[in-house]
Amino acid sequence: MIEVENLTKKFGKNIVVDNITLNIESNSINVLLGPNGAGKSTTIKSIAGLLNFKGKISICGYSNKSLEAKKIFGYVPETPFLYEILTIREHFKFISKAYRLDDNGLKLAYKYAEKLELTEYLDKLGRELSKGMQQKVSICMALMISPKVILFDEPMVGLDPKAIKNLNNIFIDLKKNGVSLFISTHIIDIVEEFWDNAYIMNKGKIALYLKRDQQESTKKLKDTFFDITEGGN
Amino acid sequence: MTSMIYLSLCKYKNLFKGLFKKPLFGIIFLIFLGFMIFKITTISRMGNINIITTESDKIKSMDVIISSIMIFIAFMFSMMVSRNVGMFISPEINIIFTAPIKKVKILIYSIYENGIFSLIGSFVIVIYLSMIITKISIINDFMVFLLILSTMYCAILIYLVIYLLSVKFKNINKYVSYFIYSIIFVIAIQYFFIFKENGDIFDSVKVYFESIYFNYIPMIGWSKFGIISAYKGNFIEWSIIFLINLAIIISAILFLIKSKIDFYENALSNAGEFQVLREKAKSGKFDINSYRSKKIESVESDFDDGAKALLYKQKLELKKTKYLFDKQSFIMGVVYIFLFSKLNILGENYSLYTVMIMLCILQVSISSRESWISEFKRPFIYLIPESSVKKAIYISSSKIKEYIITGIIFFAIIYFLQKPELITIIGAFLLFMSYKMLFLYAIFLGQRFVGIIESQVLTALIRILISYLVAIPSALGISVLLILKMNDISISLVGIILNIIMVVVVMFLSRRVFEVAEIND
After folding, report:
1. Residue A125: its chain B contacts at CB < 8 A?
2. For residue range B470-482, what is the model confidence (pLDDT) as tens digits?
3. 3-state DSSP call for residue A19?
4. ipTM over the 0.85 cut-off
5. Rounded to whole angstroms, how far apart are CA atoms B202 and B400?
6. Over the stretch A7-25, which tens digit does the pLDDT of each residue have?
7. Which of A85, A86, A97 sits opposite B2 (nearest CB)?
8. CB–CB of A153/A44 below 8 Å?
9. At what angle do helices B201-210 and B327-343 cross, to 10 degrees?
């Protein structure tokens, strides 16, 4: 689904992502973990086509910056900036037009809005929403295009516990429907139940790639994370 | 492209709807709009007292005014280049850049979005000009409008081209700045030679702006020449300049559309930096006017009790940031004094009032963006158990002190330049201070009845509109006395009395400003 080959990203002389290679399989939930400054967001933004980089990134065989790729991946950014003077409904309609979706696109958006308890706020302007609500809108906008791949950059930040629970259910449903998820997060406990593959980044490199079936059944992902990033301390 | 058109339509529809969400704002907006249309279409054709006519003996003043406006546009352009403010905001990056929309369509969207800003800017400038330059036809106004619009749009498009090129050529902004400095250098040299011949520092400014040398300065000079041609009714000269601007616009648009430069990363970085600065400005760590981080000194101070503590808090903040007064507005005020002292828009006898009126207009535009206004967003101010009026008075005290200091400096310069009688300058100073007070309390009135609108532009606009409205009684009174050719003392006295009455009315209407908060930030 997503193939990243030798991705390197520098800001000035600072190497933020250092020659990483990863392969996101279809029908799977993949988590990208790492301490602050490990290069997680830069990796996600590079895959989303927002940064220039060295290396090769393809999504379902298309270059990540091509229109074909953009039609099939969704992106939930770290900070959910919405248009201040557009309502939630207008955001959905805009996405529906930009992606040339049929009526099902909008129906899907409203379905996710209902799941995330946004229905009564559909006619509120972007600037009238709390950060958590903006995050929910951002998630609906990424999901309404029926993507094959979704990139989530810290999707749980700002969400209340119920919304996090609902989002987790959405993750599981998406996987059942054959969608690949690539989730960058700090909140390891929450993804513990449903991750399939984990990439632990440290200092710009992939320090560990782990499949769920390779993990000792008694060991938690969080413990593995600390083993890698803190050398077991 | 339909998605981008939909986006724009929704944005402007909601913006317009937002104007009328607060009925008072809607009413004020309609009154102001009606007044402007009336002003452009009727009064300017009738001729009144505050006139620069297009008669040949007065056209020299127009050169100075229009050159100043062109230099202001150039100044804004150079600020855009040096600050590298970017083309896109964060929502556009997160939503549009990741959507299957071609880069060229995103650029076209940016081109027409910027065009709308040029349109509004040009309209405001034409209104401003129509207030001081009269006895012209609506066709002249339209020609001037088109030329200013094309000049502003040229500036914005050139900025977009530079922005795009800066992705490939990192140092291009530096070279553009050098180019701008070299033009300033050329202007200084040309002025120096004229001054050497003329001998009079102020008269040389007039002579220079009227000279053919200035007309050759790229964009600034030739656009000024085109606008003057429009006012003179010289269609051929105007057409040549307009066509030059049009050619630049078409070339820039073609470059932007054909360019294959990937600007996403730069846009992301600019929008991110802008967002950080916005957050810093909100927390008082960054001065958006000077575009610099505030240096915070370590200073200690005691606080007085009750509402007075607010004044002490402000004093402490001013000490910590070593703030004396708003340097930008002070410098602009001094420039206005020198410029309008020599222009005599109201005629030789009323040169003092010309300067004062212009300073007041400047004050109205500046007061809407002063940093103390952020106090309205601080919840603790509403919670302090003191009367709202007391809090308003103490919050505004340090600003009034600043107004008095800068006012004394302004009027000392005017006294030095114009040598009026001492009693006249004192009267004018007091009149000016009464306007400053009125505009200051007009901000409280706006806050009381409209609250904080999220859009900073709208908030500034409403404050300006209310300031104009509350100044109407004294403006009318003074106009009548000017027509009757009454003496300076009477003019000042009537103006001061009317303004004091309005200050009391405004304070009464906004007496509950710090009782009811509506903070959504």
Report:
1. 14
2. 988 998 888 888 8
3. strand
4. no
5. 32
6. 999 887 788 999 999 999 8
7. A97
8. yes
9. 80
